[in-house]
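Contributing new records

If you add data, match the layout below exactly. Sequence lines come first and carry their own label; structure lines follow with theirs. Keep one chain per record. Anything else will be rejected by the validation script.
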Amino acid sequence: MQPIDGALVRATFVNVSKRERASIPVPDLDLDWSRLEYLGWRDPKRPRVGFVVAEVDGEHVGVALQRTEASARTRPQCSWCEDVSLPNDVVSFNARRAGDAGRKGDSVSTLVCAAFECPVNVRTPPATRPAGFDVETSTARRIAALVAHVEGFVRVVRDGR
C-alpha cells in the first residue's frame, strides 16, 4: 500500500456524510507501509466502529464499518485473510454502501479480524509445514488473495451495487 497522510485519510471515505467524515479519528500513520495491504483501525471512543482504507483502482478508498450483533455458533474464518488458525477474534462488520444505495439503507457485511490483523496473519508461516513447503510462495499467494478480497469488498461498498 502506498503511504497516505493524515490530511487525506478522512477525504478517502465514500460511505459517510460530511459530518461523519469530520469525526473520524485518524490513527498513528508512522507505519511500515510496505507490509500493509490496507490500513484498518477501530474508533477508540466507539469500539463497535471500524475504518478501512485500501488502494483500489489506483486510489485510496476509505470505508466506515459497524460491528454487528451477529455471533457464530463456531469460530468463524476471516473473509479477507482466510486464516484458519488465528490467534485473534473474527467479527462481523456491516458497511453502508456509498451513494443512493447507502442512503436507502443498503449495506454489505463481512467477517474480518476484529482489530484488522490480516496483514500480519498472511505473513505468519503455518506452524506445521509439509516437506518441500515453500514459505515465500505461500506468503505471496496469501498476500495476493488478501488484496483481492479487500479490494472486492471496498468496490462493492464504493460502487453502491
